[in-house]
Amino acid sequence: MQRRTFKFAIAALLTGLAVSTSALAQGGWPNKPVRVIVPFPAGGSTDVVARLIAQGLSQKLGQQFIVDNRAGAGGNIGTDAVAKAAPDGYTIGLSTSGPLVNNKFLYKSMAFDADKDLTPIALVCEIPLVIAGNTKVPAKNLKEFLKLVKANPQNYSMGQPGNGTIGHLALEQLSMVSETKFTTVPYRGDTPAMTDLLGGSIQALSAPITAFIPNLSAGKLNGLAVTSAARYPGLPNIPTAKEQGIDMVATVWFAIVGPAGLPPEIIKTLNTEVNNILGTVHGRAQLQQYGAVANTGTPDLLRKMMNEDSKKWQKVISTAGVTLN
C-alpha cells in the first residue's frame, strides 16, 4: 500500500514538474513579437543591418522581430522611443554612435540620457570613414594631401555630408591632430558630396565609406586614408590614417540597446544571439555589402566604447564649436 502511494506521489510530482516547465516555456521571453526601433529611414545602412539582425533573431528565438523606423533629429526621436519603452524585452533598438554618444554634445536639449536611460546589449558593427580624393589631385595618400593643403590652402576644399555628421566631426578631428586648416563644404548627404568630388568642385571629402566603395574600387576616386583602427577588408589597399602618422580614429558604429532596467537574462540572450548571427560567414558577408565590419562583444564592451567615444567627441565638438540647435 505504501509502495502504491509512493508511486502515485512520484507520478503526481513528475506531472506537476511537466506542467510547471510547460508554463514557464509558454510564459518565457519572447512569447510575442518584439519591436526593433531603427532611428533612421528605411533603406539606409542602419535599416538594412537591423533587418539582417531581426531576421536572424526571428529564426533563432521563434518570434517575429519587427523593424520599426522612427527617423528624425539625427536619430534622437527613435532612440528616445527605446529609452521610454517598458523594460520587458519587447522593444529594443538598433541605434548608432550619433544618438548614443555624439548628439548629447551637439544638441542643446535631449529628451533622453543615453548613459542612464538605455541598457547596452550588443555592439554590432562599425563603418569606417574614408578620406577620398579627386583623381586629379596629385596625392597618393592623406599625408601627401595634407602637405598640399598646407602649402596652398586656397587650392583645396574638403566636403562633408552635413554639419554634425560623423564625416564632419572626423574632418574637425583631422584638422586638430594635423594642425591643418581646411576650407570645408557641407552637403546634405553623401551623394551630392560624391557628385561634386567626381566633378572636381571639391578636391577631397570625409564620409562613411559605404556609398563610395564602387567608385573607389573602380579607381574613379582615390582612397587617401580610412580612419578606422585597421584597414577596411573590402578595400585593403587604402592605408589607415594612423599608419601615416596621423593620430585619429573615427567610425560610425551600430549597437543594440534597450530601455534601462532590462532583465539580465534578456540582455544575455540577445547578446549571445546577436554575436552568433554576426559571427557566421553569411552575417559578416552581408555586413561587408554595406561597408560594415562586424564588431561584436559583451554589453560591457559597448558601455566602454560609449564612454571612450564620449570623451573624444566632446573635445572635438567643443573645440570646433559645432552645434545643431
Question: What is the strand and helix layout of this fold?
Answer:
Layout: H1 2-27, E1 34-38, H2 45-61, E2 65-69, H3 76-83, E3 91-96, H4 97-106, H5 114-117, E4 118-134, H6 142-151, E5 157-160, H7 166-178, E6 183-186, H8 190-199, E7 204-208, H9 213-217, E8 221-226, E9 251-259, H10 264-278, H11 281-289, E10 293-294, H12 299-320
Parallel strand pairs: 1-2, 1-3, 5-6, 5-7
Antiparallel strand pairs: 3-9, 4-7, 4-8, 4-9, 4-10
Give an account of the 3D structure:
With 325 residues, the protein is an alpha/beta fold. It has helices at residues 2-27, 45-61, 76-83, 97-106, 114-117, 142-151, 166-178, 190-199, 213-217, 264-278, 281-289, 299-320, and strands at 34-38, 65-69, 91-96, 118-134, 157-160, 183-186, 204-208, 221-226, 251-259, 293-294. It has two domains: 33-126 and 253-320, D-Maltodextrin-Binding Protein, domain 2, CATH 3.40.190; 128-244, Periplasmic binding protein-like II (D-Maltodextrin-Binding Protein, domain 2). Helices cover 46% and strands 19% of the residues. Strands 1, 2, 3, 4, 5, 6, 7, 8, 9 and 10 form a ten-stranded mixed beta sheet that branches. The radius of gyration is 24 Å and the shape is globular. Residues 1-26 have low confidence and may be disordered.
Supply Rg: 24 Å
Figure out the total of helices: 12
Oligomeric form of this entry? single chain
Tally of individual domains:
2
Percent helix range: 40-55%
